Amino acid sequence: MSDIEIRDDRQAGRLEAFGPAGGEVVGHIQYFVLESPERALVPVHTIVEPAHEGQGIAGSLARELYGIAAREGVSVAPLCPYVVKWAERHPDEAPAVSPELLRAAKEWLAAHPEGF
């Protein structure tokens, strides 16, 4: 994965993986920032372009999302099925969150479905 660069576009709510030399976007996680009951990153979708599937890009994106959260001292409340499964396989990198936080994330998404 050394030829993939991951960038966080917080304003757009996208963690993007770029191909070699910062070329095309080959995958991304779409997320939002939840403010209450606590600040959390909430991944909603993980997408990898078909030509780039099977190269570990989705896993690299999930790992980086958790890394960003750790550096910022916030939680990740995963709603994306891929990120949920990734977190289950990597509990040392992906701390579990409370059911209340997940419920709040689901409620926020239901109230703000635009763009997802």
Q: Strand-and-helix sequence, N→C?
A: EEEEHEHH
Distance between the termini: 27 Å
Helix/strand structural class: alpha+beta
Major sheet characteristics: 5 strands, mixed
Provide the low-confidence segments as ranges: none
Shape: globular
What's the count of strands? 5
Helix content range: 25-40%
Rg estimate, integer Å? 14 Å
Strand content: 25-35%
The number of helical runs is 3
TL;DR of this structure?
The chain has three helices and five strands; from the N terminus they run ββββαβαα. It has 116 residues and is α+β, with helices and mostly antiparallel strands.
Any overview of this molecule?
By secondary structure, the protein is an alpha+beta fold. The chain is built from three helices and five strands; from the N terminus they run ββββαβαα. A five-stranded mixed beta sheet has the order 1-2-3-4-5. It starts with a strand and ends in a 5-residue tail after the last helix. The relative contact order is 0.18.
SSE blueprint and pairings:
Layout: E1 5-9, E2 14-18, E3 25-34, E4 40-48, H1 57-72, E5 75-76, H2 81-89, H3 99-111
Parallel strand pairs: 4-5
Antiparallel strand pairs: 1-2, 2-3, 3-4
What labels describe this entry?
5 strands; alpha+beta; 116 residues; globular; 5-stranded mixed beta sheet
